[in-house]
Here is the input.
Amino acid sequence: MQEDTALFETLKRVTTDSIATVLLKMGLRNQWVRGPMPLKVDQPRTVGRAFTMRFIPVREDVPGAVPKKLPVNRDAVEVMTAGCVAVADARGITGAATFGDIVVARMQKRGVAGIVTDGAVRDRNGLLQIGLPIWTVGITAPPPATQLMLVAWQEPIACGGVAVFPDDIIVADADGVIVLPSGLAAEVAAAGLEQERLDEWQMEQIKRGVSLSALAPMPKDK
Here is the structure.
């Protein structure tokens, strides 16, 4: 959507640190996703609407659970919209992958903006070559079916201890991942830019030799 384009361009100028500060001032204390870190530290700040995926521990007695009858990654990928960020609730399980390079290559072809998982991924070299921004807890070799099955998508999930609803806005950078409630995103973006200006001004003062205790409020004309 055109509205998303302008909003996302603004959010790409705001660090997750500043967003976390703004959200704290608004009373939201649990929006930073604990665990996932960037697969590659210099991958770009990524912004997009959440496409949620819910994994549970595999149950071999469930008809079709192994290898494929319940909804699986490959089915979910085909309904992802361009620009979304896939957010996977893997319950912190890292002994099996939530994504590998073949699935990720297809996601990139469909225009997915990035991936966030509180589980693991596999095929590190392949993923790095594909270049899709990924935030993950770790790297593993076993495929999902050894420990996980994907049972639903586009419903509320928990990822890294944070509630994530479909179409929440995800901002992810070198410091991690933060979740913005869709209805607050525009307000957060505007306040986030102001927080960035304040941080830059304070850093300039520190570089000039001003002590932390002597930092005065930023002049309104800055």
Remarks:
- The CA atoms of residues 34 and 160 lie 5 Å apart.
